[in-house]
Amino acid sequence: MLRRGAGVVFVLLAFAAPAHAGTLGLAEVRSPDGTLIGKAGTGAYFYPADGSVLRVGSARSTAASVELRDVSMFNGRVTVRRLVVPARGLGGARVEGLVVDGTGFVVGPNSLIPLNGGSYLVALQEAVSPGRTGSGLVALRAYVADPSLGLAPGTQLLVGLARAAHPAVATSTAAAILGLPQLAAAQASMAGVPSFVAAPSPDVPTNTLGGQAVALAYQFLGVPYVWAGAAPSGFDCSGLTMYVYGRLGIKLGHYTGFQYYEGRRVPRDQLEAGDLVFFHANSAGVPQHEGMYVGNGSFIHAPRRGDVVKISSLFETSYALSYLGAVRPYAAGNSSSPFSTWTSVSG
Predict the structure, then answer these.
(1) By C-alpha distance, which of 61, 83, 60 is closest to 70?
(2) What pTM did the predictor assign?
(3) How far apart are CA 347 and CA 326, in angstroms?
(4) 98-100 and 111-114 as β-strands: parallel, antiparallel, unpaired?
(5) Cα-atom radius of gyration of the chain, to the nearest Å?
(6) Domain spanning 202-328, CATH architecture
(7) pLDDT for residue 135 is more than 80
């Protein structure tokens, strides 16, 4: 579906050569050969003159961050209310009000949204520039493969660039600037980008506990995975669901094996927002991972070390093949836990 050929690595050129803070544009348009053909400054920006490819309502930069508002791409097919990119790190990064072809999206780091004809968007993507140990952040990158978008295939739009992507002081300090595994320069554009990690904004009624749980969980997108974590500073998979439901008055144990028995079993074809979904059973049939169903075949979870709270799809191969079952934690349970005599542990 996605191409790894020519044009894929050109996002790196946005961070290449200039080694001084402040030399990167707030938004850039780069041709298939990497040539800079458009660059936004502060204020409004239009490319071309009619703004049909890229329109920025306003842009400003400070020592701490860059901020763009009212961004539109491809004659309004993509719109964003606000983008914020910190000068260093991922804390405070924002892609707010993202709408693609009429569908709203909430995105975390390295979220991928396919467009027609092989084109795509990647949100909050880290890139390592050649000759540096440090990296920079692109808030929203559009790769064009379909000439119907009005650009030559291979053209890229880079919107919201970290303007102060300084080299790291020491190599050891640069291993995970954004809390994500860094990508080698030649691979930073596509390697490691999941095939599906974005999902429509939750359009669920909040008059149910499940709907309220989903709305609360979405506030923690991008929070780093921390083993045994159960707070907004860091979550593991069961810690996230325990924390969210705890805020709603539902007490869950901090262990996936416990939570699999804390509620009523739900058939897959009857899943509702807020249901807990479980994966990867061990030899005893006990799940080793879980998430919270958000609707449309998607769930929110804290996957593993080096990752962050994000949205994944039940149809991704690893989850589709390892799906074990689901429970509704605020409904009366219909099975007993084999761990009832255990003390609570993290997992």
Answers:
(1) 83
(2) 0.48
(3) 17
(4) unpaired
(5) 21
(6) Alpha-Beta Complex (3.90)
(7) no
